[in-house]
Specification:
With 231 residues, the chain is α+β, with helices and mostly antiparallel strands. The protein folds into two domains: 138 residues, NADH Oxidase (3-Layer(aba) Sandwich); 78 residues, no CATH class. The chain is built from nine helices and five strands; from the N terminus they run αβαβααβαββαααα. It starts with 7 loop residues before the first helix and ends with a helix.
């Protein structure tokens, strides 16, 4: 008997336009060890967004919390299960406290390829995407989902991302300490954006708006500031 496919169009309309279904039994133990899989739980559903649609949905929803994207995503997942799987058991492990390897899952889905500026890229969306939710459920969807493109970095000869980084942090390996120090420097142009990321031409049509950039990088800057005080 064939399995049903994930209702992708509904998720796309809600801004969660990247989705991949994994059978838990097929995932490596290194990815499932922290999930404390319970009897009856069969699948992990990975959701992400690419481009600007999710931010538009979040703005329209009018969330006033400190984490409007997470709040909107969780509410959307709850609506999704209430509509399509009202009798299903599920739990959202991300956002949450579970140590789930999102980038590793993204690599298995074909969404994530390393870049010189530490943000995952693919040939379609560039770096303008993110992981938004991971759900463990007793669902029985057909495994698979949104296609990913190959790494665009392998054939990039000009590498504008390297020259654009004022801290010289972009490259292999990425110099995290140099990046952090530059972002914390008063008046840094990197405080609320990544110049290397903006310089990458791949997927530029899907680049985040200025408000979305400031929101995303504002959160990471706040965490970086707290970390620097605690050292």
């Amino acid at each position: 008997m064939s399995r049903p496919t994930l209702p992708a169009a509904w998720l796309d309309a809600a801004g969660l336009n990247r989705h991949y279904v994994f059978d838990l039994a097929a995932l490596p133990d290194t990815l499932t060890a922290a999930l404390a899989i319970a009897p009856g739980e069969r699948q992990l559903i990975l959701l992400g967004h690419a481009g600007r649609r999710l931010w538009e949905c979040v703005q329209a929803a009018g969330s006033s919390g400190d984490h409007p994207i997470d709040d909107y995503t969780v509410a959307t997942v709850e609506r999704f299960f209430a509509r399509f799987l009202p009798h299903s058991r599920y739990r959202i492990v991300y956002p949450g406290g579970a140590a789930i390897g999102l980038q590793s899952l993204g690599s298995l889905a074909g969404w994530h390829h390393p870049s010189p500026f530490m943000v995952g890229v693919d040939a379609v969306w560039g770096s303008w995407h993110a992981y938004r939710a991971a759900i463990v459920a007793d669902s029985a969807f057909q495994p698979g989902g949104s296609a990913g493109g190959d790494s665009p970095c392998a054939e990039c000869t000009s590498r504008p991302c390297l020259a654009a980084c004022p801290a010289g942090a972009a490259g292999e390996p990425f110099q995290l300490a140099a990046c952090s120090a530059e972002r914390l420097r008063p008046g840094s142009p990197c405080a609320h954006r990544c110049l290397s990321r903006l310089a990458c031409p791949v997927g530029s049509a899907h680049r985040y708006t200025e408000t979305q950039l400031r929101h995303s990088y504002g959160h990471s800057l706040t965490m970086l500031e707290k970390w620097s005080v605690m050292r």
